[in-house]
Amino acid sequence: MADKTICFCMAVTESQIRDAIKSKKLKTVEQVSEATKAGTGCGGCQEAIKQILNEMNK
């Protein structure tokens, strides 16, 4: 199965976001955006980023 693109503006995939959260211990959408550029275009993926963060930081 192909890696799901979360941020189409910046072409950032779910695995790139998950890897950044895990390796850099990110806690906020802003931190993920800074690390990956996801969410810095139209902002439409910020809710998806928040869901990934919530899932990984339980």
From TrEMBL:
This is Bacterioferritin-associated ferredoxin. Transmembrane segments: none annotated. Keywords: 2Fe-2S, Electron transport, Iron, Iron-sulfur, Metal-binding, Transport. InterPro entries: BFD-associated_ferredoxin (IPR052371), BFD-like_2Fe2S-bd_dom (IPR007419), BFD-like_2Fe2S-bd_dom_sf (IPR041854). Belongs to the Bfd family. Residues 6-55 form the BFD-like [2Fe-2S]-binding domain. PANTHER family: BACTERIOFERRITIN-ASSOCIATED FERREDOXIN.
